[in-house]
């Protein structure tokens, strides 16, 4: 292994540690700190679904909903089968007041993975849409 390989390994290791640190910060309800730690990883690996998903979660939890929407949408461009990204995109659209769009994403998430959390969110948004229509 030459010096260039070592440098790449170190950089990869550093990005991995930053990613894990950002995950821990989100879990500890510190999404803004997570975004600071994650920034170099986002710059180095903008097309990696896991990186975009973590950034999207941090944006969502820090109420940066337009950024969250863009990041979740990017995740789904990279991996259309990510039911969790669809679920939280639906929740993001719900928080933005775009209930019909939210309903579509939540329906897809639930169809892909019918867990109670997805069903609850789907039922809640569905009820709100019906109230607006009625």
TrEMBL record:
Keyword DNA-binding in annotation: no
Matching Gene3D superfamilies: Tetratricopeptide repeat domain (1.25.40.10)
Keyword tags: TPR repeat
Start and stop residues of the TPR repeats: 49-82
Lineage: Bacteria, Bacillati, Actinomycetota, Actinomycetes, Pseudonocardiales
Full protein name: Tetratricopeptide repeat protein
Pfam families assigned: TPR_19
Signal peptide stretch: none
Domain of life, per lineage: Bacteria
Record keyword Ribonucleoprotein present: no
């Amino acid at each position: 292994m030459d010096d260039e390989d070592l440098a790449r390994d170190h950089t990869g290791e550093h990005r991995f540690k930053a990613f894990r640190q950002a995950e821990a910060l989100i879990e500890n309800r510190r999404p803004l700190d997570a975004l600071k730690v994650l920034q170099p990883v986002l710059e180095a690996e903008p097309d990696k679904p896991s990186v975009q998903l973590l950034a999207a979660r941090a944006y969502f939890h820090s109420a940066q909903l337009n950024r969250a929407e863009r990041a979740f949408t990017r995740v789904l461009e990279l991996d259309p089968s990510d039911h969790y990204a669809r679920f939280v995109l639906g929740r993001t659209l719900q928080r933005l007041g775009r209930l019909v769009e939210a309903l579509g994403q939540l329906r897809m998430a639930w169809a892909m993975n019918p867990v109670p959390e997805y069903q609850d969110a789907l039922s809640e948004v569905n009820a709100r849409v019906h109230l607006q229509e009625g």
